[in-house]
């Protein structure tokens, strides 16, 4: 059973980090939480909401974290076969602005479509959505900022179009689709498009004085998929648990893993931030985090998950600026992981297995390079270099005698077992690479093997 309590020293360190951020950032209120093994194990709040300390049931606006909810809905449509990520948007959304109709669903999810970051004026986050009644109103007269598919360029209108796509294919308003397909299955009863009491008010803090200015809580209309949602720490702990491990009632872990793969060029050899399919990705000192930050006038939000640590961090605040909330949430995850490293699962052997699979286990050679295939306790195969770094992948049985690569260079590639007339394994074919039991040890190697075989160096 997982340990559901943090050590006192860990809780103290988390509270200190949260309290320091609230005090130094001059944030009216701040709530944070840690999720471990799918359940909240620590929460903390600072400041006041309506004269009372905020709780895990206090609603805050979560801004662009809304985009990850919309991306999950799009991936559900993909998994159902209702669309392909390579489909042009106009194939499914005929009312798309002409400049967006030819952009693919994947490009919109990954912010590589080249669309503008914002709508035409006025500032959409602070104005009623009624000023943009049509999808064409979301894109300005000079819509192409970059060639499609080439670079990452964050686009709020792009996600508004994806929200319209979901509504059209489902034939229901976005809030209804969210409720039926994500919120209800995950038990998220306090997440909504408009605020529901008890909720925090949004504030701007004067940069040079300790005084506040109320921010408007607008209904952004068609732009809602870009940043409209309100939620609580309690609900977002459930969402973080889902993002870390998946839920068959909402989206499979394999689809979430696809969303966590960087979809645009990384920034240098050592990257800090990247973007997948509706998910922000953060390399926090070697710890790979995924989730999303969010901001709207008066509010800041972040949810980060570290699947490898089985941890998630949630932070909500009601200030327009003042703190780096993404760094704060990452710090909460890091503090927990450093104070209480994850205890590995107990190793157990396979209960049943096909003895023929043992023919696949052990050393193989890709040409002269030694590799290793190991049969895992979950029934998958693990392929990689025998020593050192190199191409590796986990492989899952397809049921027809072949294996599907799940990650890395061989993601999506097929491993085939080739046998002779007597049924003995002669070699493996991995995406056309021939694996043999000895270095270049088979006449099945493309190009043939020199008939004189291995020899000493030239005289």
From TrEMBL:
Annotated SUPFAM superfamilies: beta-lactamase/transpeptidase-like
Classification via Pfam families: Beta-lactamase, DUF7586
Domain DUF7586 per the UniProt entry, residue ranges: 354-437
EC number of the protein: 3.-.-.-
Domain of life of the source: Bacteria
Enzyme class: hydrolase
TM region positions: none
Ranges of residues in domain Beta-lactamase-related: 20-337
Cross-referenced PANTHER family: BETA-LACTAMASE-RELATED
Any one GO MF annotation of this record: hydrolase activity
Alphabetically ordered keywords of this record: Hydrolase
Protein name as it appears in the record: Serine hydrolase domain-containing protein
């Amino acid at each position: 059973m997982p340990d559901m309590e943090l050590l006192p020293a860990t809780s103290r360190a988390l509270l200190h980090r949260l309290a320091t951020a609230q005090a130094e950032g001059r944030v009216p209120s701040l709530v944070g939480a840690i999720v471990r093994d799918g359940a909240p194990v620590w929460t903390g709040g600072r400041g006041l909401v309506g004269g009372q300390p905020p709780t895990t049931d206090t609603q805050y606006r979560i801004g662009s974290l809304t985009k990850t909810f919309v991306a999950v809905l799009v991936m559900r449509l993909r998994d159902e076969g209702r669309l392909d990520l390579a489909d042009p948007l106009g194939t499914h959304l005929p009312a798309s602005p002409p400049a967006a109709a030819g952009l693919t669903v994947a490009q919109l999810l990954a912010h590589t479509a080249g669309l503008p970051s914002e709508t035409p004026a006025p500032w959409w986050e602070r104005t009623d959505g009624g000023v943009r009644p049509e999808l064409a109103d979301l894109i300005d007269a000079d819509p192409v900022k970059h060639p499609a598919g080439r670079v990452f360029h964050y686009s709020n209108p792009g996600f508004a179009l994806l929200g319209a796509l979901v509504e059209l294919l489902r034939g229901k308003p976005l809030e209804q689709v969210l409720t039926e397909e994500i919120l209800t299955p995950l038990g998220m009863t306090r997440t909504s498009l408009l605020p529901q009491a008890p909720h925090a008010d949004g504030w701007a803090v004067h940069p040079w004085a300790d005084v506040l200015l109320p921010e408007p809580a607008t209904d952004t209309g068609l732009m809602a998929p870009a940043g409209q949602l309100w939620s609580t720490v309690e609900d977002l702990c459930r969402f973080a648990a889902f993002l870390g491990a998946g839920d068959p009632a909402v989206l499979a872990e394999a689809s979430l893993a696809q969303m966590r793969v960087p979809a645009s060029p990384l920034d240098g050899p050592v990257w800090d931030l990247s973007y997948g399919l509706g998910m922000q990705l953060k390399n926090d000192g070697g710890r790979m985090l995924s989730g999303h930050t969010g901001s709207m006038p008066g509010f800041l939000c972040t949810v980060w998950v570290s699947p490898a640590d089985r941890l998630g961090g949630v932070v909500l605040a009601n200030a327009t600026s003042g703190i780096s909330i993404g760094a704060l949430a990452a710090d909460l995850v890091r503090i927990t992981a450093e104070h209480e490293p994850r205890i590995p699962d107990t190793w157990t052997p396979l209960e049943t297995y096909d003895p023929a699979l043992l023919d696949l286990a052990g050393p193989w050679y890709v040409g002269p390079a030694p590799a290793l295939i190991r049969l895992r306790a979950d029934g998958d195969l693990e392929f990689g270099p025998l020593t050192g770094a190199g191409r590796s992948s986990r492989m899952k049985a397809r049921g027809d005698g072949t294996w599907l690569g799940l990650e890395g260079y061989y993601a999506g590639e097929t491993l085939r077992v080739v046998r002779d007339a007597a049924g003995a394994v002669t070699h493996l074919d991995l995406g056309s690479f021939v694996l043999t039991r000895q270095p270049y040890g088979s006449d099945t190697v493309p190009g043939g093997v020199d008939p004189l075989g291995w020899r000493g160096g030239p005289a």
